[in-house]
Amino acid sequence: MELGGVGCLTTEMLSARSLKDENARRSPYLLRTAIETPLSYQLLASTPEEIAQGVAAVVRFGADSVDMNFGCPAPDIRKRGGGSKLMENRDRARELVAAARRATDGPLT
């Protein structure tokens, strides 16, 4: 089956912290088919260490690009310092972007 007009697919928001324990061949969050390309993995993180670890994991899984979630307004996500909470601390946001960039030279949004 072909999908016309789709330029890039994006996963649901994934916890960067949890990815180190995921198996790309069994995880319902990471399973993909050959036609699901290019695929961008959307990651949620609140620390540079989490994002670096998550980016490294999805690069191993064959990510075509990585999207950092800086916009989720969910109260639970914001309480943990992620999503839109990052926009309240530009220095922290810069640290996350820098850590993600060090973990991949591929497309990063």
Helix-strand string: EEHEHH
- pLDDT < 50 stretches: none
- The proportion of residues in beta strands is 15-25%
Instruction: Please bin the fraction of helical residues.
Output: 25-40%
- Quantity of strands, as a count: 3
Distance, first to last CA: 28 Å
Describe what you observe in this structure.
The chain is of the alpha/beta class. Helices cover 29% and strands 16% of the residues. The protein has a three-stranded parallel sheet, with helices on one face. Helix 1 (48-60) runs parallel beside helix 3. The longest helix is centred in the last third of the chain and has 14 residues, at 90-103. It is globular, with a radius of gyration of 14 Å. The protein starts with 8 loop residues before the first strand and ends in a 6-residue tail after the last helix.
What distinguishing features does this structure have?
3-stranded parallel β-sheet, 109 residues, single chain, alpha/beta, 3 helices, 3 strands, 29% helix
Topology:
Layout: E1 9-15, E2 39-44, H1 48-60, E3 65-68, H2 75-79, H3 90-103
Helix pairs in contact: 1-3
